[in-house]
Amino acid sequence: MEPLPKVDIAPAQGRLGILTPGMGAVSTTFMAGVIAIRKGISKPIGSLTQMGTIRLGKRTESRVPMIKEFVPLSELNDIVFGGWDIFEDDAYQSALNAGVLDKTLLDQIRPELEAIKPMKGVFSKEYVKKLDGRYIKSAKTKWDYAQMLMDDMQKFQEENKVDRLAAVWCGSTEIFLKPEAVHQSLESFEKGLRENHPAIAPSMIYAYAALKLGIPYANGAPNLSTDIPAMYELAKETSTPICGKDFKTGQTLMKTILAPGLKARLIGLNGWFSTNILGNRDGEVLDDPESFKTKEESKLSVLEHILQPDVYPELYKDFYHKVRINYYPPRGDNKEGWDNVDIFGWLGYPMQIKIDFLCRDSILAAPIVLDLALFMDLAKRAKFSGIQEWLSFYFKSPMHLPDLYPEHDLFIQQMKLKNTLRYMMGEEQITHLGADYYEYYR
Ligand SMILES: NC(=O)c1ccc[n+]([C@@H]2O[C@H](COP(=O)([O-])OP(=O)(O)OC[C@H]3O[C@@H](n4cnc5c(N)ncnc54)[C@H](O)[C@@H]3O)[C@@H](O)[C@H]2O)c1
To answer: What are the helix (H) ranges across 350-434?
Structure first.
């Protein structure tokens, strides 16, 4: 294998516009959070770019800078927010509706949030059955919609005098779509846009528009979106980084923390039953079986890949895995997720683990939006293009090359991310071998 080329990163000069298609709970919790942090009201808990450190060189060197001081990232003060929605509410009103953050916090940053008004969305009820958007663009073909979105992006950049843009999909989960012929090449996709092909969902039109303009695009929902050959081709053509799918928060985050530990200690698994109650708009959208199917596919695959039943048949062959999401309005965004894990140990003796996670979905997702936007902008300035597998850390269904399997283990994902940052900055990779400290052979 040829050695990897040296990376030359353009500085993070000027302002960065972060655009979110979808300005609901996650998006507004992210925006309000960054504004509150900028004002010194709150702290960026959960954000690797803001609070994380990275070890460099040997343990004896004591070089552990903050990530934001190690790689050239945009400053929070240089971020400008924008987005689209199918409802007209500005970010203040939408954050109030979402009910994630306290009104007392939102009122302290009200003018800044009110100034963030959504652009009209591209939407069709065919793809999200539970929503009735009224604030939407109107055009004849999907091709025309793509052009309108590109106009929005360019206009946003000019009006807000931002130097670069990054987009993170925070819109709803659409119905389950499988890759089809129309997705297989850029040519067939563009033809499909002109002919209003039904397998081109709105989320794909946003992604297409962004990639066409060279804007990095991260996909926070399980929608196919950029995970099709046509988009890989476009991303390469315009030297644009892409990543997805589906923010890894809540129950799946817990799964990918716990499962690697069980496997590391060769503890067997008979079954993993997961159920949730949640009452936000995301929960309502997922109440539709077709949107739930998209989510379910995304949630189910993680254990299979982490536990590798083919490599460890005696421990993990035929384990039973079930995931349920129940829409329960009284809880709003404050989800409760229960897991019952049937495991077995030495001599096959059974044991159980019970998890009751009272989490807040958008509180866990907001720092991910920030990190993704900042890292994707970094990737673009480092001239990385196509699938950014090093950002798997943030996703339930990480995008990967077709002939590679995805990495779901959170700890491998973290190592991959940090080693990529070391590689970008010309620092040695950390293998954790450690034999050189002990001089075993002397
Ligand atoms: N919160 C989490 O922990 C989490 C984790 C993983 C994935 N996600 C995904 O992130 C997305 C956002 O979650 P949320 O809790 O903010 O949901 P939400 O329902 O509060 O917000 C989604 C917003 O997108 C808008 N929207 C839908 N279709 C659109 C379109 N075509 N164009 C523009 N706007 C559109 C909706 O009107 C809504 O305001 C969902 O797809 C969800 O499944 C969330």
So the answer is: 361-381, 410-424
